[in-house]
Design a protein that fits this description.
There is one protein chain. With 478 residues, this protein is mostly helical. Helices cover 84% and strands 0% of the residues. Helix 5 crosses helix 6.
């Protein structure tokens, strides 16, 4: 539901704003998002790994110290960017090559410290098992408020500045929601802390720094297409790319949901030396991501020529190829499994940095070479080539760390089934005039069919025991 609400808001914004205005807004939001993710400094991943370990050891003082130090660090780092943009607005506009983009960034820059602290709180809640709070904040409260902002924008005829300010305000509300939950949790934690609060500086720094470098490299890769297009082609070409970047990223949603809970689980299993349990968690997460991501993949690749003009209008019809390439890149990232997070749990940080540096270098060369020739399509093609190369390198390293392949025959059969469905529906799309409604129904039916066929392998009851309390259809029960 959050996915549908968020995407509906995106569609309204695309249709409401002029193409160049949308391009300027997307460019500013993309830069702000890039900055806030960079300002995380690897600390959310560090908390996700170490908080379960501290809890296993009964070191509650380190849990509190690590959380406070992480939140304070990212808040200060984010505030520094706010100060820079506020003090040098003319310089910012010149660097971006657009006064409108600079003015929008002057508003959106406030999401840098806000979303950075939000990300730290989310990692802490995941490590503490507070899944309900994450669900309410990430998938109910904030998406609902952002859709309300978009509805006001369109209904009242406000400017794009109103949209930017509303986006910032929703981040404030989300942060207050997490903070109130932590204050309530904090009282019970203080009662349990018998030793002094301790900031495990060495563990945080030695793990967070390589993770930060790795995350920054990958974030730069995913944002490189927008940045290169903005600098080399202008707002119109950015709009061609960004209009479909949001639906393409829907393929990453399943990965982000599973990764939030997978890393603390894997870290706890690693702390107990339970390699067999860790393998099972890895396999289960990968199989589930492959199955749950199939409907989105079909809609944004096979049916992209129908999806793009029907949703965004004929003026963006040429972006269908961009959507196909970006969706393929993001889904390959998901279908390959949580390789990067698993290597970080094993502290194979040097290997991940080497791989990410190589990937970014390859992506930069490909995108810069292809953008002058093919514009937004070239940026998407360069991203796809770099991501596929990274997947192969990560899998090779993980095989060595885990002592062999961690994905068995079940994964191979499921992947072949997904490939067969892609081929069959691609053939259908070529010979039958499919509209958007039929495309959605076919994508959903294919996803349910694979879920039914793989239900025993997926082990619904074992992977998600909480679902047994819900009135699930009989075919989903083990």
């Amino acid at each position: 539901m959050a996915l549908a609400v968020d995407f509906a808001g995106h569609v309204l914004v695309v249709r409401y704003l002029a193409k160049e205005t949308f391009g300027a807004y997307s460019f500013a939001l993309g830069l702000a998002t890039l900055l806030y993710t960079a300002m995380l400094l690897g600390l959310p991943d560090t908390l996700a790994r170490y908080v379960p370990i501290y809890r296993e050891r009964g070191e509650a003082g380190k849990v509190v110290g690590a959380a406070v130090a992480s939140a304070a660090t990212v808040a200060v780092a984010g505030a520094a960017w706010v100060a820079f943009v506020a003090l040098f607005p003319e310089l910012t506009a010149r660097l971006l090559g657009s006064a409108q983009t600079g003015a929008l960034l002057g508003v959106l820059i406030f999401i840098v410290p806000l979303e950075a602290v939000n990300a730290v709180f989310q990692a802490l809640f995941a490590a503490l098992g507070r899944v309900r709070a994450i669900f309410l904040r990430q998938y109910v409260l904030v998406p609902g408020l952002r859709f309300a902002v978009v509805a006001l924008l369109v209904g009242a005829g406000y400017s794009v500045t109103f949209l930017a300010a509303g986006y910032v305000l929703t981040s404030v509300v989300g942060l207050l929601f997490y903070a109130s939950g932590l204050l309530r949790r904090g009282r019970s934690v203080r009662d349990r802390v018998r030793s002094r609060i301790e900031v495990p500086v060495r563990e945080l720094v030695t793990f967070a720094l390589p993770v930060f470098v790795s995350a920054l490299l990958m974030l730069t890769l995913f944002g490189l297409g927008t940045i290169v297009l903005g600098l080399m082609q202008g707002p119109a070409e950015v709009a061609e790319f960004q209009v479909v970047e949001r639906p393409a990223r829907l393929n990453l949603l399943i990965y982000s949901v599973f990764a939030v809970l997978y890393v603390p689980t894997a870290a706890g299993l690693y702390a107990r030396g339970d390699l067999s349990g860790l393998r099972h968690a890895y396999n289960a997460s990968t199989l589930w991501m492959l199955v749950l991501g199939l409907p989105g993949l079909l809609l944004t690749t096979v049916f992209a020529p129908v999806f793009v003009p029907a949703v965004f209008g004929e003026r963006y019809a040429s972006s269908a190829v961009v959507l196909i390439l970006l969706s393929a890149a993001y889904f390959s990232f998901v279908g390959a499994g949580p390789n990067g997070p698993t290597l970080k749990v094993f502290r194979r940080l040097r290997a991940t940095i080497v791989i990410d540096v190589s990937t970014l270098a390859l992506g930069f060369v490909l995108i810069v070479a292809l953008v002058p020739m093919a514009g937004a399509t070239g940026a998407a093609l360069g991203t796809l080539g770099a991501v596929l190369t990274r997947n192969v390198m990560l899998r090779l390293v993980l095989r060595r760390v885990m002592g062999g392949s961690v994905l068995g025959a079940e994964y191979l059969r499921l992947a072949l089934g997904v490939a067969a469905i892609l081929g069959a529906l691609s053939g259908l799309q070529l010979v039958v005039d499919v509209n958007l409604v039929v495309a959605i129904l076919l994508s959903g039916a294919a996803g349910l069919g694979v879920l039914f066929a793989a239900r025993r392998v997926l082990d619904v009851g074992g992977t998600f025991p909480e679902l047994q309390r819900l009135p699930l259809p009989g075919f989903l029960r083990p």
